[in-house]
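Format notes (please read before filing issues)

Several people have asked whether sequences and C-alpha cells are stored in separate files. They are not. Every record keeps both together, in the order shown below: the sequence lines, then the C-alpha cell lines. Line labels are part of the format and must not be stripped during preprocessing.
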Amino acid sequence: LEKFFGKVSLRKKNGNLQGLSPEGEELARIAENFLTSMQGFQDRIHGIKPSINIGAGETFLTSVLLPNFSNLKRISTGIRINLCNLRSSDLSKSLDSGETDLIIVSEKRLGRNERRLYLGRLNYKLYAPLTWDKLKKYQKEPLSMICNEPYASLSGSGKRRSHIEQIVDSKIGKTPNYELECSSLIEVLQAVKSNCFCGILPTFLAKDLPLKHYKHITIKELTEMHGKLAIAWKKETSHFKPEIQSVAKEIQIIFKKIS
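Then the structure lines:
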C-alpha cells in the first residue's frame, strides 16, 4: 500500500514498529467503511435483513424507546432494530467501533464528525412521598432534604452525582445522605415509589409519581445538570444504511412528545 500511495508512510516507527501512522489510521477507517458496505450489500443479496443497532442507557431504552417501539417498526420496514443497553461513557466508543449505528447521548460526548439530531434537554426535579410529615420544614431549602432524609441515588462517580454533591456542598455545606445506591434511574424511581426515599429524577419519569401522592420540587440549580441530548451516527453509515436517518428522525419525534 505504501508503494501504491507513494510518499505516504502508513506505519508509525520509532526503531520498532509501533502501529499505524495517522495516515494509516485514516486508511483503515476508509477500508472498514468499504468492507462494512460490501457486507451490507452481500446480506441484501442473500435475503438477510439489514439491522440498525441503537445504543442508549437503560432509562431511555425501557422508558422511551420500548413503549414507542411500534413507531420505530412502522418507519423501518424490512429492517431489524436492535437495542443495546450501554453506559453513557461507553456509547461514543461503541459508535466508533461499529458496535452501534445510532446512539442517544449528551452532545458533550460527541466529536465533530458525527451526524446528529437534537432531542432537547433533560429537566430534573426532586421527588418525595407526601406521606412524609416533615416536608414543610424543607420549603425554604429543598436540597437540605437529601442531606437529612433517606436519599436514593445512582451509584458510582458520574457527572450527575458529582454535580449534585457540588451544589449541596456549596449551598448547605453537607454531603447527601446516601441511604440507597442504585445502578439505574429506573431503580431510583422504584425507591421513591416505595415511599421510603426521596430522589432526583428526570421529569419524563415522573408520570409514575402522581402529584396526589408525591411532592414534585423544582430546584433551579438542577437545570444545568444535563447538557443537550442528541441522537448521533457516523456520516459513513448513511451510505450503506440509508434508513438510519429516518429512524433517527422518528426517535427525535418520540423525544419531543415526552419533553
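For reference, the curators noted about this record: The longest strand covers residues 114-121. Residues 22-45 form the longest helix (24 residues).
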